[in-house]
């Protein structure tokens, strides 16, 4: 069950909490992201799965969520004799932060619109109710 905004504002939150708050990412997603951030080189799914001590398929699902959220990038590496494999690296943190800022601005504008609609609706109701003495 999700928390109310009042509850979120009362919580102590760390920057990693933004991954969950903005994108609904899970603990494993955060671990995979940190594994990629801490690696000096891009990692394959197998390498990342080993790093976070999970099955390959579990790590793959987490990587897909991170890709969709824009937190990591996929690159193709070609073998000399033909064929290829993929490696993953974190997206530039400034790009991630810019994206979260845009999402926050969009959310803020939407909430402002909903608050205005609330005010318009209930002020209109209040003004139409006759005052009784």
Verbal overview:
By secondary structure, this protein is mainly alpha-helical. The protein has two domains: about 90 residues, Winged helix-like DNA-binding domain superfamily/Winged helix DNA-binding domain (Arc Repressor Mutant, subunit A, Orthogonal Bundle), CATH 1.10.10; about 40 residues. The protein contains six helices and two strands, in the order H-H-H-H-H-E-E-H. Strands 1-2 form a two-stranded antiparallel ribbon. Helix 3 packs across helix 4, helix 3 crosses helix 5 and helix 4 packs across helix 5. The N and C termini lie far apart (about 45 Å).
Give a summary of the structure in a few sentences.
By secondary structure, the protein is mainly α. It is built from 6 helices and 2 strands; from the N terminus they run αααααββα. The chain has 2 domains: 1-91, Winged helix-like DNA-binding domain superfamily/Winged helix DNA-binding domain (Arc Repressor Mutant, subunit A); 92-133.
What keywords describe this structure?
two-stranded antiparallel ribbon; single chain; 133 residues; Arc Repressor Mutant, subunit A; 2 strands; 2 domains; mainly alpha
The SSE order reads HHHHHEEH
Helix count? 6
Taken together, the total number of domains comes to: 2
What is CATH's topology name of the largest domain? Answer: Arc Repressor Mutant, subunit A
**CATH superfamily label of the largest domain:** Winged helix-like DNA-binding domain superfamily/Winged helix DNA-binding domain
Low-confidence stretches: none
Overall average residue pLDDT = 86
CATH architect. name of the largest domain? Orthogonal Bundle
Q: What is the percentage of strand-forming residues?
A: 5-15%
CATH class of the largest domain: Mainly Alpha
| Rg from Cα | 22 Å
Q: Please report the distance between the alpha carbons of the first and last residues.
A: 45 Å
Number of strands: 2
Q: Tell me, briefly, the overall form.
A: elongated
Strand order of the largest sheet: 1-2
As a percent range, the share of helical residues equals 55-70%
* Main beta-sheet strand count, sense and barrel state: 2 strands, antiparallel
